[in-house]
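Troubleshooting: if your tokenizer reports a length mismatch, compare your output against this known-good record of 578 residues.
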Amino acid sequence: MPHHHAPARFDRDESLRSGQLTLGDLGTPLSEVTFVVVDLETTGSTDITEIGAVKLRGGEVLGEFSTLVRPVDSVISPFVERLTGITNSMVAGAPELAAVLPAFLEFARGSVLVAHNAGFDVGYLKAACGRLDYHWPEPQVLDTVRLARQVVPRGEVVNHKLGTLAAHFGTAVAPDHRALSDARATGEILHHLFDRFGSYGITTLEELSRIKPAGWTRRRTKLHLAKDVPHGPGVYMFLDGSRRVLYIGVSADMRTRVRSYFSAGETRGRMAEMITAAQEVATVPCDTHLEAQVREVRLIAEHAPPYNRRSKNPERRTWLRLTDDPYPRLAVSRTPPVTDVDAAARLGPFRTHRQAQQAKRILERLFPLKQCTRRPGSAGFAPCPSGELGQCGGPCAGVTDVEAYRSGISGVLDLLAADPADFVARCRERMLDLTAEERFETAADTRDAMTSLLGALAAEERRAHLTAVPEIVAAVPAADGGWEIALVRWGRLAGSAAVPAGLSPYPAIDALALTAEHVDPPTPGLPGTLAEETALIHRGLSDGRTRLVRSAAGWAEPISGFGRSHGRFGRLDRGPAV
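Known-good structure output:
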């Protein structure tokens, strides 16, 4: 029985808090990371004489650690005494490093270590752990010297020494070669650097850790291209000097997303190459996020940008067609069906030719399908290779009764009729046999082929049901309490609108119905709505948040069929350790 999607009325007093996920939701925000900023003073050779550290999160000081350390293997040189003010008499009564180090490691546990010229300080601490047989926890480390070189260029400062940066940023604590003072100053500098990186869209620890200096410097010089990009949902396009489209993307906040391409967080080599060639950024603002996603799919299909990997050449689809013969076989076809009868004799479409071939092989393995192209009664007719192995149920294998042949491939005929039960049962049986024989890789191949086939058929099943409805109006609750309206005709987005909070959406819906794009009903053999667009719309309508306002005809989906089998197969049959 079909499951019907019933229209819903709006509740004007309902509290709505859902919204779109953006890149800002990914990674660990710097404001939520606990940092321990550390500084060491030494004798000038192998011994540590002072440890100072400040624990910070979100700009707030959570704690401080400070202690002198009595050196064991050396004494403080006169030069170091004059530089730091720490004398041999001052450290004579201090604890040794063996007693101090565990306390510091506990203070810093679970934090990101920060130091100015971190190689020096962290190197001393790591060596001390090795020498004293303490476990070094391998913390993530940030070096404020390296970070400063990315966002505080020469010319703005003469060098990147701690005192120079402290004076440049006007820190409240002046570094004085004492460990705690220097750690406090470094902590202040760290947050000034975070402000600089934030202006380039770098707001997470993961982005900050992936900085590649050379690429970052080149990309930063192109930041002016994002100057006129607006906030809000839409599609952005990077163009070269001849206005050829290089790359197309979509975002709920175009300005933030485009700026991120020029930041250190963008580490993809192809994108660095694309940014180097880009001379302009064009945008297509959209009323809703769904409209932006759909326009991205259409524009990629139209322009085929060289730096986009997905959505290009959507017309390149492949089907498995059951031939119209007394003993039909499966044939791979890249020609769309031209009639309803032709469509009913096909499985697919598959996204790639390889997926179709993979599905053909597994079906021929599970069912005694004829595989050769020779006709019965031809001169010198002999069993094909599959017939010799007993895997062919065609006339070359001795089957001369048409009904007997069709009975043998009834599971394939059931698949064409949207009943995958026999197909799934045979697949499970084969997987169990292969697992019992410890042929786990072959079992995994079988599982993946079946999942791919069922997924393709489930997608086509969803598309067929949605493209059969003349018109659907749906509403998505917006983060600000308003609504995002979508009008869909024959599975294609014909129009969308955003309704602010506090206003009735019905006038906007009525206006949209009059101004939306006209869409012709789907016709076999003619280019229709892009499959990826229909999939986006279906996903939006079925996400549990979207309200179906009205529908020109019943929109229904089967409670059994490919979609159900695909989900159940994926859950149940990942059993073998493959």
